[in-house]
């Protein structure tokens, strides 16, 4: 399959590790020019070196996407270096606290929406003009199965991820005539290196294997994953690359769930 991503300029946020790093590596493998963004330059440089060792062409630019001025500066740097941006992947996200509703403060809500939603809004606002000018663009926003099938915990995170799915649909309608496709990818439980570290630590504490910890987590927290295993960052990356490619040129406004069958609704 010809994906048509060679020499496309791709900006990936939250790209120093985990899913974001896998997405960046997947685009680099297709011959794209990839800009890795995260908060810490040292971690970014390490990720960039790993991708470069595989033959990828990458640029590491640190910026805090929760700050409007840093988002503007990041996009200006990319445009100054490459002249345009073809693909934006809004992967930065998360939540600081795992807690029930009554324990989540206003500040927690604001911070979570700043990281997940407003960072996405600001980055899209900054890149759309160059995409409009070239009449071609791909925007992929990373949400979560929690945006569709929420947990009882972390309602601020669940609501933020639901907002991203809604935003994606709205913008897909707003920019389709400009040749800009806007889609969402919603992963379920993904076994990133950070998750592996947590499972390994818990296994050591309990005197059992990391696999037993993983299986217990699936039973208790993700019983509806029909494939009965976590996903991988590379599986998420494959979905993102596909949506950015010419092979997906008639797909916009969709929410592609990479969830092993976890979400029960149609």
Structure, described:
The protein has 266 residues and is of the alpha/beta class. Helices cover 48% and strands 14% of the residues. It is built from 8 helices and 7 strands. It has helices spanning 18-29, 41-53, 68-82, 106-134, 155-175, 193-206, 210-221, 233-244, and strands spanning 9-12, 33-38, 57-62, 87-90, 137-142, 180-187, 255-258. Strands 3-2-1-4-5-6-7 form a 7-stranded parallel beta sheet, with helices on both faces. α1 links the parallel β1 and β2 (33-38). α1 (18-29) packs across α8 (233-244) and α3 packs parallel to α4.
Q: How many strand units?
A: 7
Order of helices and strands: EHEHEHEHEHEHHHE
Unreliable spans: none
Amino-to-carboxy terminus distance: 28 Å
The main pleated sheet reads as: 7 strands, parallel
Rg from C-alpha positions? 18 Å
Can you tell me the overall shape?
Answer: globular
Percent of residues in helical segments?
A: 40-55%
Strand order of the largest sheet: 3-2-1-4-5-6-7
Topology:
Elements: E1 9-12, H1 18-29, E2 33-38, H2 41-53, E3 57-62, H3 68-82, E4 87-90, H4 106-134, E5 137-142, H5 155-175, E6 180-187, H6 193-206, H7 210-221, H8 233-244, E7 255-258
Parallel strand pairs: 1-2, 1-4, 2-3, 4-5, 5-6, 6-7
Helix pairs in contact: 1-8, 3-4, 4-5, 6-7
């Amino acid at each position: 399959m010809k994906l048509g991503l060679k020499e496309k300029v791709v900006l990936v946020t939250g790209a120093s590790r985990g899913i974001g790093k896998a997405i960046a590596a997947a685009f680099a493998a297709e011959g794209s020019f990839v800009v890795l963004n995260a908060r810490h330059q040292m971690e970014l440089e390490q990720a960039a070196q790993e991708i470069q060792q595989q033959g990828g062409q990458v640029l590491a630019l640190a910026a805090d996407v929760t700050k409007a001025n840093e988002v503007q500066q990041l996009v200006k740097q990319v445009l100054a270096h490459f002249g345009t941006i073809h693909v934006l992947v809004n992967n930065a996200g998360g939540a600081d606290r795992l807690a029930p509703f009554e324990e989540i403060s206003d500040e927690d809500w604001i911070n979570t929406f700043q990281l997940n939603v407003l960072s996405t809004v600001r980055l899209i606002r900054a890149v759309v003009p160059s995409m409009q000018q070239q009449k071609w663009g791909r925007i992929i926003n990373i949400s979560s199965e929690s945006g569709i099938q929420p947990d009882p915990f972390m309602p601020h995170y669940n609501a933020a991820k639901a907002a991203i799915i809604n935003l994606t649909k709205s913008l897909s309608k707003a920019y389709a005539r400009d040749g800009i496709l806007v889609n969402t990818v919603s992963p379920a439980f993904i076994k990133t290196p950070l998750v592996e570290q947590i499972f390994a630590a818990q296994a050591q504490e309990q005197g059992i294997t990391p696999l037993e910890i993983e299986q217990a987590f699936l039973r208790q927290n993700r019983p509806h994953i029909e494939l009965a295993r976590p996903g991988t960052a590379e599986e998420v990356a494959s979905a993102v690359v596909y949506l950015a490619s010419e092979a997906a040129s008639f797909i916009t406004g969709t929410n592609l769930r990479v969830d092993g069958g976890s979400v029960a609704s149609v």
